[in-house]
Design brief:
Two copies of one chain form a homodimer. Chain A is an alpha/beta fold. Chain A contains eight helices and 13 strands. In chain A, strands 3-4-2-1-5-6-7 form a seven-stranded mixed sheet, with helices on both faces. In chain A, strands 9-8-10-13-12-11 form a six-stranded mixed sheet. The longest helix of chain A is centred in the C-terminal third of the chain and has 18 residues.
Chain lengths: 335, 335
């Protein structure tokens, strides 16, 4: 069993190295791939220094690789998917390139693990980070009573735009403290001391692609074509965990006790909700943590069939690298 | 016509001084009141240096004051309301002390100006900042078709917790840049690089008081007992303008064109919505501005009778000082 990471120098690639370093499933070798710029650098993983190879169209480059974690943007995924999968490699793709392809399963292991085994193109897509953390929290509710509508406002960290975006936010704050002018490159506007109601590009209906991913991907992952999500996605000056304020309407009204019990027993969910001790999930506390942390559970005051809650998860871990590794665990456990 | 500011040293008091300095209505004298700590300091206003007087229970202290702007917290408002109004002074109160009192009107001049003239206790309450900016944007929609439900997630600036909270956020970032430990006093947790889903204290139903203010005050201001608001109020590391992501359900479905036209002609609303040029309201741009800026207008994908939009307004101006001055303008225009 050999694995590869494509995009080894990015924020998600680095986290994949961290996670694989803990040997979350049995594998023998690891290969790392990157752009020409990264090629030749080494990364320490599982006690060895591994040299980053340049990603090219060289025939047979991925021969002998069983699972390739690909996280270098949708353009790279589209361009290299055929090369990567040519000799039987399963490609677990972190980009948006194939998520809505009917021949590509879109998998969150806590929600739709079986879909991972129906991958005719040998591509399995990792959902968008905001969608992953939302569906992990929605699944236990949906099992109590089918969900009809979700309203969700996000508070998304800089990490979603990559390692260089995190550097930019840090640099903006350093510049402000030093009284220097601020540089803006990675986001459309200054993020320090600001919130930006715009992630990814705008679509014709006024929603951004990020918002439409939450709408479309949720239906596919949850096998729920009539579950309608309306999202407002907002970038906030936080480093790496995403937060979401959610309102969920179910077919039947649910008591908070039932929802609480469902959260407590749900895989991948950590229920953290104790207002008396001012305990609720916050992104600053949860960078580097695995579960989707849920709290602030209460009735929707505007809807007898509604509940409201708050969910926080590390965007780079469960929102990307960890979910991809969990998909690999599914595949290797069955193999 | 004489006016007074109680709480002259606070964030809202300072902004009241700035606004009164522009002579927004005709008055002769200004008196300033503060705590013992502030008393004796002077503030420049309307070309004069005015000494801050200590707020005490001395009988007749407010004699000759026609309108007192009071912004020193609910405790001070409760303790001094009788003193302030004893000799005919109208108290425009920025605190939450009297907002739900049936004998105290709760006024946003763009929404319910007439209520200001029915103030048997000579107290007029300024609503909570998040509610003010929301109802200014809701009113034009409610006139097209009555609003049934509102879901709102807020992104609230440090300013809502006062001038010292803004200083704390600035200091936290300076400490992080310098590698020093961070001090937390004004908020329950570190705000720099974080978001905190908790503003004001928790109530029995799991909502915070801040969230319940949006629920209860909106009904009173809009004379709409069946308009149900469910809010999630979140502090974000922004200095002084609040943002809100809103979903509004109306009795009849509305086209975006009608809502857009209503926003464009609504008093106090600035419609700023051009995705093509990446133009949408953002708090960093709008500190110090008067209107409620609205953008990101689109259909609610989960509800045929729903629309979604984004609203940003300066918390200290329209959210507090400006609204109070506008109430005074109503009173003086009629007088």
């Amino acid at each position: 069993m050999n694995v590869a990471i494509v995009g080894a120098s990015g924020a998600v690639g680095r986290e994949l190295i961290n996670i694989l370093d803990t040997k979350p499933f049995a594998f023998d070798g690891v290969r790392l791939f990157g752009s020409r710029r990264s090629a030749g650098q080494t990364r320490r993983i599982c006690g060895k220094d591994v040299v980053i190879e340049e990603l090219t169209h060289e025939p047979g480059l991925f021969r002998g690789v069983d699972i390739a974690f690909v996280s270098a943007g949708a353009g790279v995924s589209r361009e290299y998917a055929a090369d990567i999968t040519a000799h039987g490699t399963i490609m677990i793709d972190n980009s948006s390139a194939f998520r809505m392809d009917p021949d590509v399963p879109l998998v969150v292991p806590e929600v739709n693990p079986d879909d991972a085994f129906d991958a005719p193109r040998r591509i399995i897509a990792n959902p968008n980070c905001t969608t992953i953390q939302m569906v992990v929290a929605l699944r236990p509710i949906h099992e109590l009573s089918p969900i009809r509508r979700v309203h969700v406002a996000t508070y998304q960290a800089a990490s979603g735009a990559g390692a260089s975006a995190m550097d930019e936010l840090r640099q903006q704050h350093a510049d402000i403290v030093a009284g220097r002018p601020v540089t803006v490159e990675k986001f459309a506007h200054q993020l320090a001391y600001n919130v930006i109601p715009h992630i990814d590009v705008f679509t014709d209906n006024g929603y951004t692609k990020e918002e439409m991913k939450m709408h479309l991907e949720t239906k596919k992952i949850m096998h729920a074509p009539h579950l309608e999500v309306s999202a407002t996605c907002v970038r906030v000056p936080v480093m790496r965990a995403h937060s979401e304020a959610l309102w969920v309407e179910t077919e039947s009204p649910l008591t908070l006790d039932r929802v609480r019990a469902a959260f407590r027993s749900a895989p991948g969910v950590e229920y953290t909700d104790d207002p008396a001790s001012l305990t609720y999930p916050m992104p600053l506390d949860l960078a580097g943590c695995d579960p989707v942390h849920v709290g602030r559970l209460r009735k929707d005051l505007s809807n007898p069939n509604g509940i409201s809650f708050w969910a926080v998860s590390d965007q780079i871990r469960k929102g990307a690298a960890l979910n991809a590794v969990q998909i690999a665990q599914l595949l290797t456990a069955k193999a």
